[in-house]
Every structure is written in C-alpha cells, then in structure tokens.
Amino acid sequence: MTRPVVGIIGNSYLINDRYPTHAGGTMNSCAVSQVAGCLPLIIPSDPSLVSVAELRSICDGFLLTGGRPNVHPEEYGEAETPAHGDFDRGRDAITLPLIRACVAEGQPVFGICRGFQEVNVALGGTLHPEIRDLPGRDNHRMPPDGTIEEQFALRHQVTFTEGGAFHRLLGAREVMTNTLHGQGIKDPGRGIVIDGHAPDGTPEALYVEGATGFTLSVQWHPEWNAANDPVSRPLFQAFGAAVHDWAARRSPGLMVRRA
Q1: Choosing from 59, 72, 113, 204, which is the catalytic residue?
Q2: Residue 71 belongs to what H/E stretch?
Q3: Which one is catalytic: 84, 130, 223, 244?
Q4: 113 counts as catalytic
Q5: Whole-number mean pLDDT of the chain?
Q6: Which of 31, 44, 186, 252 could disulfide-link to 126, CB 3.0 to 4.6 Å?
Q7: Where are the domains of the chain?
Q8: Catalytic residue list contains 30
Q9: Which of 3.20.80.10, 3.40.50.880, 3.40.50.1000, 3.40.1440.10 would CATH assign to domain 5-250?
Q10: CB neighbour class for 111 (10 Å; exposed up to 12, middle 13-18, buried from 19)
C-alpha cells in the first residue's frame, strides 16, 4: 500500500569543506517513517532546482527541520550582524513561501527548531539573534561536548497554555524537552499563537490560529527518540494523521496506511 509523502526540508552542507550536499538528519526520516507512518523525501532547498508549486503537488505534508544556518534577518526587516550567524538563502527562498502556501491551503506543515522560527518569520514575525544574550534568559544552545545522547538529553521544562492545542494533544501542561537553539521568537507573526514557554519565557510551541491544517511547531527537537519519547511520539503521530487525511482528500481512491 502507498504511504503519503512528507517532504523533509534539506540543508546545504559542505562535506570536508569542499563537496556541496543537500542533507537531512537520519532521525528526521526515521520519525516520519516509523512514527508518522509516511514516506520521507528529502528536499533540496534550492529555488533554482525546485519550486513551491512542484513540491506541493508531489508531497502531502512538510517537515521543516532544524539546521545550523539561520533565517536571514532581511526576511524580517532587520540588518545582518555577526550575532545572526550563518545563513542559507536558498532554504529561505523555498521554505518561507512554502509555509505561507501550506497555511493558506490547509496542507500539513510541522516546524522544528529553525522550522519553528521559519513559520513565525513566514507570517511576518521577528527573531532574537541570540537568546542567551537577553537579560534573564538561559543558554538554549546544544552543549558543545558530550555524546549525542547527552547533547539531545532533556534539559528544561515547557509549560503549555491551559486547555490549549498542545495541552489537549499531549494530556499534560508541563513536559520536559531538549534544547539546541541559539535564536528564538521576538515578535509573533500574523495568527501565530505561542502555546508553550520555557521557564525563562522563551517561546517553545506554536500553532497558527484559524489555519485549517496542521501547523503545530516546536522549538525543541522531537525527532530525537521519537518512537519512544512520550512527548515526541504523539506529536509525530498527530502530524502523520493530518498528512494521511490530506492525502486521502486529494486522492480519495488511494489506499493509505496509518502508523
């Protein structure tokens, strides 16, 4: 039986500082396949190679992954500074209009870390270039040392709005998450509802008010241990269910397999 397709936004990397690639973390593909029950497809985020229209016609939903490069501040009306870090303008050119189209049409989109920030910027929001430099904020960046298990370990609590979308989905107002990001939301975009915060007030969970499709997005990395983590698993299952529903509506005669 055919599974619906989830486009996983790839990032541009140089292997050995010279060989250009479009890549995606294996844990993203595993979460999409094993937990969401969908077919993972890594997208080369380069507008000279793919278009938003083509992607939307091939894919049933999109996973907006994390990545070291940040959204360029020009996308939210600010000047570039050293604090803004590295950029991937090709990814900006694909993901921002893709998000706007998906939100408008109800096509499922799930943002993670940079993807969480992209959803906000796509809808007119802004970002802080470095959370740890703000008064009263913690350092949310990945620990520089340790095993991957230690770097992705649960590090802080996230508190959701009473009765909000995440509270209803996860059945808890407070959960523990990892944290591996430098930037964060400053001003929410149009329709962006901040539905969860870290203890220092940093936005950690959002959805788009009035959107007809799945728009839940998180600042942490739920793809890590997604099959076993009690917070990650229901997020990917809900995303997968939304993708299956979209695929079924688009092709009513197509049999799809749920996770």
Answers
A1: 113
A2: none
A3: 223
A4: yes
A5: 92
A6: 186
A7: 5-250
A8: no
A9: 3.40.50.880
A10: buried
